[in-house]
Amino acid sequence: MLPSYYQHVCRYENSLVTKFFGVHCVKPVGGIKTRFIVMGNLFCYEYRIHRRFDLKGSSHGRTTDKPEEETDETTTLKDLDLNYLVGSLFLHSE
Q1: Angle at CA of residue 44, ends 40 and 72, nearest 5°
Q2: Which of these, 85, 35, 25, lies nearest to 55 by C-alpha position?
Q3: What's the CA gap between 13 and 16, in Å, rounded?
Q4: pLDDT grade, residue 11 (50/70/90)?
Q5: How many CB atoms neighbour CB 9 within 10 A?
Q6: Is the pLDDT reported for residue 73 higher than 50?
Q7: Rounded mean pLDDT, 53-78
Q8: Interatomic CA distance for residues 41 and 21, integer angstroms
Q9: Threshold 0.85, pTM exceeds
Q10: Cα–Cα distance, 16 to 11 (Å, whole number)
């Protein structure tokens, strides 16, 4: 799978497939081992991102902790917030 992924991202520079730049592990002296992945941002910088979502496909604990009036474009919304937003869009469009 990795060779096909690599060929795809090399051939299609503007692909919306997330680019992975590295998988790393660090363990500070006396600390705990931490693993992390460095990924590229797939969003174009010329467009303002006005809503961000962290979608997991679950409903358990999947709402933001902020009241709606306190959310802004830096707030990361979750699965159930999307359900609420889509539902309210349909209600307002009729």
Answers
A1: 95
A2: 85
A3: 9
A4: very high
A5: 15
A6: yes
A7: 80
A8: 11
A9: no
A10: 12
